[in-house]
């Protein structure tokens, strides 16, 4: 059996910054190959080279033994290579069916787009991933997780021989992940090859046949998954001195009873048609409330409501004893609310430098009439250092940072002038082990300072590692609360 | 870092860097190169082009467009469009004349008021039209393209009703001075235009509002989720655009020496062209007054220069169209390069 895809001595630099250093990589036919590494290790960059996004690099790539160099994603696609990018590239204005068939619409005998075949096919593909959405729904109306599944189905069923998935599960909850893995295994058994990038090491080890580890732009190891465990993988990813990190990731934290602090945020019978029903909750200062649920359970919509982005139909929210008017995000911000949405695209300005991204929400605190960029830069430099953002340069356009580092910039927005309540939606999405740990530390630090924090997530690890108290939502309703008791991933999943 | 040494060997050849650098700055360089080329071309092709008198001509000719383009730059930076600028300019110019005492020969049912009152009413009316644009866009949710198209009709209707096919000539003295007189060798209208450009630049570059304008244009969702009041920013730019147009309309009436229906029609295309030719992105978030100034001069030099060489006057219209097309192509292409750079 010859190797399907082989890369040798691949190096890639952006300007003066080196993203990949003489990397070798091999993909066999009929395997699921995991790729792991910290944020900024170069995973996405290597995949973009394979998929024809970056056509300028040093080194050579062989497909079926022949040297190839793709000039564009279209070339790669023609050679049978399809990729789902880390940042969703769906067209929000088009329907789900059109997104599934992007660029390959079926035609009827007259040469026109065959809409019926398209809807039919789309429904079939989506069914096999276990999603029940009408293919005519506009993409933009779907929550992030469903958008991710639609994008996945576009590439999974495109007939590509090599399928690259860059963090495909970052917005999915366990049931969808299981179904996705089922599809991946079927595709593999049918002879396709899949590259799977993820920061969920358990997932990688469960579904992949082999795993390649990257560290700082270099390939440091490749092994059969059956021969290694999570501890080994973390060790290769982080290098020396990783014991503490490892602990923080491997062990769960027992929930502690919150101190008797005043209630900073109270939800009373909050409801919104099609999203959540009759939610009553209270958050104390210095407490982290986790809201866990599967995709579509309503916790992410609830989080948006608290920042004035999705007005509720009924009920009310009290902040510091006063009714909060949830009609605009700027009003919510001035009332001391802060929010981190689940998608980076909804949060960040890709073409603007890092420092402008960090100060956009606090401009009126640091400027009177005229802007003072020097003050902004000073603030940004402090955050870059504190959050260990790589590369440590506040002048860089944000879009050139790796996914996980962008997420840190998003968090930094709210750290200069502390809000009263911080609402985090999937705060560690796309972050590596070390960065997740950084977020845990930041959130703990904020808690010490008396801020009320709400963490909404579809990812059990996230709420478990951050929250003092956890409520579980199911189909729009709060169904269970865990406080003052030990809680594990299994018990959370069972409740949802 | 210990890696620095072998890093150097991995960085691809300089030539590629230079190309990427050029491509990324295409948006800024191309308009300036176009301008230099046009100046050089007309300088050589015509004796009468490169004179001091003609420079003053060009400045005067682009002044009305410039004042409109200042407001339009704000709108386009927010990734919106205002198609009603010329119509609002026309309406405002007619309103100011309507409230000024006209010569007995002018057959308009005008309402003579003191000059300052006429000016205040005119400013209030362009503000009101801008407010309606803003309301339609941000509260009702009509796309700016459609909303301002409707406003174009409404403002044209106001013009028609007020002048009823007649022509008015008198404007308040202040407007007359600023629109048609000179301070020494420099026409007042050019000074006003320069002032508008300067203030527009200062606001966009050095104030919080300006930063919000860029951010709303760069990524509206992200601005919203950062707690920026996107509606208020959009409303403000629509009103700024209308008020700039109104001022341009009043001075324009003095400059032309008359107020009548349809006299600003060409300014819609000219002002949009000035902003876009200068390199401000139609997708929002990129560009600024500096670009608009270059765009104004490209159009001004082109329009003026074509008058100095012997050329079929109908061909001129075609040439202007072609230049606009090229600018649009560069604009869209530059956007694509930037997207690729920022990583897809
Ligand atoms: N278009 C670009 N311009 C400049 N630098 C870039 C660009 N794309 C990536 N980089 C840099 O290359 C390095 C590797 O980035 P890459 O996106 O491959 O990381 P990653 O392993 O996918 O990380 P993550 O897990 O955070 O997604 C980072 O330091 C990043 O800042
Ligand atoms: Mg990545």
Q: Main sheet of chain B?
A: 2 strands, antiparallel
The radius of gyration of chain A is 23 Å
Low-confidence stretches of chain B: 1-16
Tally of discrete structural domains of chain A: 2
Helix/strand structural class of chain B: mainly alpha
Q: How is the largest sheet of chain B built, in terms of strand order? A: 1-2
The distinct bound ligands, ions and cofactors come out as: adenosine-5'-triphosphate, magnesium ion
CATH fold description of chain B:
ABC transporter involved in vitamin B12 uptake, BtuC
Shape of chain B: globular
CATH structural class of the largest domain in chain A: Alpha Beta
Please tell me what the overall shape of chain A is: globular
Helix content of chain B: over 70%
Q: What percent of the residues of chain A sit in helical stretches (DSSP H or I)? A: 25-40%
The number of helical elements of chain B comes to 15
Helical segment count of chain A: 18
Strand tally of chain B, please?
2
Give the strand content of chain B.
under 5%
Percent of residues in beta strands of chain A: 15-25%
Report what the structure shows.
The complex is a heterodimer of chains A (496) and B (344). The longest helix of chain A has 16 residues, at 174-189. Chain A has 18 helices and 20 strands. Chain A is globular and about 70 Å long. Chain A has two domains: 5-246, Rossmann fold (3-Layer(aba) Sandwich); 253-347 and 413-495, P-loop containing nucleotide triphosphate hydrolases (Rossmann fold), CATH 3.40.50.300. Chain A has helices at residues 43-50, 73-78, 96-100, 115-128, 144-156, 174-189, 201-207, 230-238, 243-250, 299-306, 329-334, 354-359, 363-366, 373-386, 403-412, 433-448, 460-466, 489-495, and strands spanning 5-14, 17-27, 32-37, 58-63, 66-68, 81-84, 162-166, 193-197, 210-215, 218-224, 263-272, 276-284, 288-292, 314-319, 322-323, 337-340, 421-425, 452-457, 469-474, 477-482. Chain A starts with a strand and ends with a helix. Chain B has helices at residues 4-10, 14-24, 26-45, 52-77, 85-98, 115-140, 144-163, 173-180, 188-206, 208-218, 220-225, 230-256, 265-278, 289-308, 313-341; strands at 182-183, 186-187. In chain B, strands 1-2 form a two-stranded antiparallel ribbon. The model of chain B is unreliable at 1-16 (pLDDT under 50). Chain A binds chain B through residues 11-13, 15-16, 18, 21-22, 53, 56-58, 85, 87, 89, 307, 309, 328-330, 332-334, 338-339, 341, 345-352, 356, 360-361, 363-364, 367, 369-371, 397-400, 413, and chain B through 3, 6-7, 10-12, 16-17, 206-208, 210-212, 214-215, 218-219, 221-229, 231-232, 285-286, 338, 341-344. Bound molecules: adenosine-5'-triphosphate (ATP) and magnesium ion. Residues 14, 17, 19, 37, 39-45, 86, 390-391, 400-405, 432 of chain A line the site of adenosine-5'-triphosphate.
């Amino acid at each position: 059996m010859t190797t399907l895809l082989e890369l040798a001595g691949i190096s890639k630099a952006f300007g003066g910054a080196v993203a990949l250093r003489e990397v070798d990589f091999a993909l066999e036919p009929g395997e699921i190959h995991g790729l792991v590494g910290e944020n900024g290790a170069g995973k996405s960059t290597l995949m973009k080279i394979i998929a024809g996004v970056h056509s300028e690099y040093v080194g050579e790539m062989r497909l079926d033994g022949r040297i190839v160099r793709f000039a564009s994603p279209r070339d790669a696609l023609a050679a049978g290579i399809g990729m789902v990018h880390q940042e969703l590239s769906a067209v929000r204005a088009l329907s789900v069916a059109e997104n599934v068939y992007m660029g390959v619409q079926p035609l009827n005998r007259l040469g026109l787009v065959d809409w019926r075949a398209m809807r039919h096919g789309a429904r079939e593909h989506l069914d096999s991933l276990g999603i029940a959405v009408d293919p005519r729904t506009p993409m933009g109306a779907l929550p992030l997780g469903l958008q991710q599944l639609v994008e996945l189905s576009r590439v999974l069923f495109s007939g590509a021989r090599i399928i690259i998935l860059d963090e495909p599960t970052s917005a999915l909850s366990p049931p969808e992940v299981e179904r996705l893995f089922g599809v991946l295994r079927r595709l593999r058994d049918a002879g396709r090859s899949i590259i799977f990038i993820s920061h969920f090491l358990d997932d990688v080890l469960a579904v992949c046949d082999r795993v390649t580890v990257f560290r700082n732009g270099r390939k440091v190891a490749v092994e059969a998954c059956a021969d290694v465990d999570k501890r080994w993988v973390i060790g290769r990813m982080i290098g020396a001195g990783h014991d503490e990190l490892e602990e923080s990731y491997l062990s769960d934290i027992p929930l502690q009873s919150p101190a008797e602090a005043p209630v900073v945020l109270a939800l009373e019978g909050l409801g919104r048609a099609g999203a959540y029903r009759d939610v009553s909750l209270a958050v104390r200062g210095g407490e982290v409330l986790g809201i866990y649920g599967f995709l579509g359970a309503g916790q992410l919509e609830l989080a948006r409501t608290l920042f004035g982005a999705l007005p509720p139909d009924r009920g009310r929210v009290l902040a510091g004893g006063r009714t909060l008017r949830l009609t605009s995000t700027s009003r919510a911000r001035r009332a001391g609310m802060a929010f981190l949405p689940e998608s980076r695209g909804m949060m960040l300005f890709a073409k603007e430098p890092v420092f402008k991204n960090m100060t956009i929400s606090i401009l009126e605190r640091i400027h009177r009439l005229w802007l003072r960029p020097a003050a902004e830069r000073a603030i940004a430099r402090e955050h870059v250092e504190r959050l260990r953002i790589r590369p440590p340069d506040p002048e860089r356009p944000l879009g050139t940072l790796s996914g996980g580092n962008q997420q840190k910039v998003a968090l930094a927005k709210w750290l200069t002038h502390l809000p009263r309540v911080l609402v985090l939606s999937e705060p560690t999405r796309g972050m590596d082990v070390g960065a997740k740990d950084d977020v845990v530390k930041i959130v703990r630090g904020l808690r010490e300072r008396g801020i009320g924090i709400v963490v909404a997530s579809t990812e059990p690890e996230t709420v478990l590692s951050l929250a003092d108290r956890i409520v579980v939502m199911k189909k729009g309703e709060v169904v269970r609360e865990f406080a003052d008791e030990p809680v594990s991933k299994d018990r959370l999943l069972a409740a949802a | 870092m210990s890696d620095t040494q072998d890093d150097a060997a991995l960085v691809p050849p300089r030539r590629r860097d230079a190309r990427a650098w050029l491509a990324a700055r295409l948006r800024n360089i191309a308009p300036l190169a176009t301008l230099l080329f046009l100046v050089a071309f007309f300088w050589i092709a015509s004796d009468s082009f490169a004179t001091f008198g003609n420079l003053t001509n060009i400045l005067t000719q682009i002044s009305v467009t410039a004042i409109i383009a200042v407001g339009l730059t704000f709108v386009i930076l927010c990734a919106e469009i205002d198609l009603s600028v010329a119509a609002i300019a026309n309406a405002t110019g007619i309103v100011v004349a309507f409230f000024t005492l006209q010569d007995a020969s002018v057959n308009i049912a005008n309402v003579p008021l003191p000059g300052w009152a006429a000016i205040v009413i005119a400013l209030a009316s362009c503000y009101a039209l801008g407010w309606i644009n803003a309301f339609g866009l941000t509260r009702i949710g009509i796309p700016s393209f459609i909303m301002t198209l409707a406003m174009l009709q409404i403002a044209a209707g106001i013009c028609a009703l007020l002048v009823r096919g007649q022509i008015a000539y008198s404007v308040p003295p202040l407007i007359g001075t600023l629109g048609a007189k000179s301070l020494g060798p420099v026409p007042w209208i050019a000074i006003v235009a320069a002032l508008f450009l300067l203030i527009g630049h200062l606001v966009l570059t050095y104030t919080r509002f300006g930063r919000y304008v860029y951010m709303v244009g760069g990524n509206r969702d992200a601005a919203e989720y950062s707690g920026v009041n996107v509606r208020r920013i959009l409303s403000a730019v629509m009103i700024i655009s209308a008020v700039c147009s109104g001022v341009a309309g009043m001075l324009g009436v003095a400059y032309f020496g008359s107020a009548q229906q349809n006299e600003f029609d060409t300014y819609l295309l000219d002002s949009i062209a000035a902003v876009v030719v200068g390199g401000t992105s139609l997708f929002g978030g990129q560009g600024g007054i500096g670009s608009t100034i270059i765009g104004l001069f490209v159009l001004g030099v082109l329009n003026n220069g074509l008058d100095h060489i012997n050329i079929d006057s109908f061909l001129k219209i075609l040439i202007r169209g072609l230049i606009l097309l090229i600018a649009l192509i560069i604009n869209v292409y530059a956007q694509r390069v930037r997207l690729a750079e920022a990583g897809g």
